[in-house]
Automatic annotation (TrEMBL):
Record-annotated membrane-spanning stretches: none
Organism of this sequence: Streptomyces antioxidans
InterPro entries on file: Homeodomain-like_sf (IPR009057), HTH-type_TetR-like_transc_reg (IPR050109), HTH_TetR (IPR001647), Tet_transcr_reg_TetR-rel_C_sf (IPR036271), TetR_SbtR-like_C (IPR049445)
Superkingdom as given in the UniProt entry: Bacteria
Protein known as: TetR family transcriptional regulator
Pfam family, one: TetR_N
UniProt keyword terms in alphabetical order: DNA-binding, Transcription, Transcription regulation
SUPFAM superfamilies the record matches: Homeodomain-like, Tetracyclin repressor-like, C-terminal domain
Amino acid sequence: MTPPPARATRTDALTNRARILAVAGKAFATSSGASMTAIAKQAGVGVGTLYRHFPTREALIVELYHHEIQKVIDLAHTLAAERPPLDALRRWFEEVARYGKLKYGVSEVIHAATNGGLDDKNYEPFLEAIAVLLDAGAASGDLKPDTDPQDVLLQLSVLWRIPPGEGGEARAARILDLILDGLRTRPATS
């Protein structure tokens, strides 16, 4: 006996899921204590609908993490194709900083879900995204050649330790300036 074909997800369910993820991203970037009830209300769905999509708070956070980091990864390729290398890298760093605000309050859940990063399916693609931008900058002569993407990731990881709120964005911008400055090539001095 052949099993029945899988049913396609209804359009309204996909829309609800996308709206929940969008609201949750903003909510967790503002406060790691955002409640599931408040997220459901802001997304315009019932609490039951939220829990049908995400049975636990942790499930919502992990799905949001995968969703948001994939957007950051994809953006690297787009920026590398459309902008000058330094501009592309700076814009991508700014997006990583935005993502860092989300990760700040929920990093323990993400860390636990990815076994401390050892089981994180996004790790290699994230490194590859960094490499795309570094390679473009090295090819143009704007960035130091042979920079290890893992070294850059370690530098960027400080962004998810910056508490959101007053002064956080300014501090992130200063840190990004320092990282970018360290990656640039400099003319040899006599």
